[in-house]
Write a structure and sequence with these properties.
Length: 282
């Protein structure tokens, strides 16, 4: 989706960029409920009311009410040729110093012809130091800041949100609870820490998946199997969760019960090692 180079100091590494994320959103069409025909979108000329083809559409900036400057892809490129062709590394930092809310979208950086050695050098240096490279890039007509990180195989570029793009707590009409307003006892903290320790496990991303999408697909397949393809399911009352209000929860009792249930689950799992080993082999 982008070709250019990574640059730091006098090092220049030709690379190609590929998106590293893919959407798991279920693609749904908009339908007219009267005949279930697909509903489409049209690009309408606001002056004539006629449909405009994609080939006739250009981007423009409204510098004065009703007056526009037309911009082509060449205008975006020529605004700063170096910025549109290079990820310019400005510094190196620890990834732990970057708060999670700043991360936006991941991309793979793959070495282009002639860039293999410089690419391997940067990847090895990042791996050994545990740092990430901070830099900027112009892509799709917009400047992005981001970080280049490394794993054992490739370099990854993660775009970062600008600080101005994040809402501060002051922008929300809510207040964070003060420690004095919701005091917790040392025993409650110790119990919570024990539960956190009990629930701690190595991060295994393959174990996480979109279970809601899978449930929705099962529901869709069931409607297809029953030939209920044009039958709208009536709204039902949401099931009660059975959870008490936060004001009346006995935290110590809840934490203790959570620890006891985990202990009982561990004992039950340990009582049938043979069945567990069969599952792993299958």
């Amino acid at each position: 989706m982008w070709k250019g180079a990574v640059s730091f100091g006098l090092v220049y590494i030709p690379v190609e960029m590929y998106t590293a994320a893919r959407s798991s959103t279920l693609e749904l069409s908009l339908l007219d409920s009267r005949d279930f025909a697909p509903v489409g979108y049209q690009r309408i000329n606001k002056r004539t009311g006629k449909v405009v083809d994609w080939a006739d559409i250009v981007k423009g900036y409204e510098y004065k009410k009703g007056e526009f400057v037309a911009l082509s892809e060449e205008d975006f490129r020529q605004a700063n040729v170096k910025a549109s062709q290079t990820i310019e590394i400005t510094s190196f930092t620890s990834s732990a110093d970057i708060a999670p809310e700043y991360y936006e979208s991941p991309y793979y950086l793959i070495p282009a012809k002639g860039g293999e050695k410089g690419y391997a050098l940067l990847r090895e240096a990042l791996l050994r130091t545990g740092k990430v490279a901070v830099g900027s890039i112009v892509m799709r007509g917009r400047q992005h800041f981001g970080v280049i990180g490394a794993d054992k195989r490739v370099l990854l570029f993660n775009t970062l949100r600008f600080a101005a793009e994040l809402r501060s707590l002051g922008d929300l009409d809510v207040a964070a609870p003060a420690a004095k307003a919701a005091p917790v006892s040392p025993k409650e903290v110790a119990m919570a820490e024990k539960l956190l320790e009990e629930m701690s496990a190595p991060w295994k991303p393959d174990e996480y998946h979109d279970s809601y999408r899978e449930d929705l697909m099962r529901r869709i397949e069931e409607k297809v199997r029953k030939r209920q393809i044009h039958l709208l399911t009536p709204k039902e009352k949401a099931p009660k969760t059975g959870q008490k209000s936060a004001q009346v929860i006995d935290l110590m009792a809840v934490l203790k019960k959570s620890l006891e249930s985990r202990g009982a689950g561990a004992k039950k799992a340990g009582a049938t090692p043979a069945s567990g080993s069969r599952r792993r082999r299958s």
